[in-house]
Amino acid sequence: MKNNIPTRKLSKYSKKIFKGVKLGDKVHSVAKPIAQNFDKIFGTEIEKCGGCAKRREKLNNLFE
Q1: Most buried among 1, 9, 24, 47, using CB within 10 Å?
Q2: Within 10 Å of residue 29's Cβ, how many Cβ atoms?
Q3: How far apart are CA 64 and CA 36, in angstroms?
Q4: What per-residue confidence (pLDDT) applies to 55?
Q5: d(CA 30, CA 27)
Q6: Residues 1-58 pLDDT 10s
């Protein structure tokens, strides 16, 4: 059980990783791997749909 990292430490590390990154980029970093797995499992092309790029741009510009 010593190998498990407590949630508090994870949030501390994620703050360092995402420091200076805009909201759209954060959402993209979570949504893209999910879309890739959906594509592999179900044979779809969700990753290439273009909606992600629009959402990313909109969220990045929202908090400028």
Answers
A1: 24
A2: 13
A3: 29
A4: 92
A5: 5
A6: 455 555 555 556 555 656 678 889 989 999 999 999 999 999 999 888 889 899 999 9
61 compared with 21, residue with greater pLDDT: 61
> Do residues 36 and 47 make contact, with C-beta atoms less than 8 angstroms apart?
yes
Q: What secondary structure does DSSP assign to 17-39, as a single string?
A: HTTT--HHHHHHHHHHHHHHHHH
Instruction: Take residue 10 and report the two structure tokens written for it.
Output: 């994870």
Q: Among all chains, which residue has been given the structure tokens 């970093």?
A: 29
Query: Using a CB cutoff of 8 Å and minimum separation of 24, what contacts does 30-34 make?
Result: none
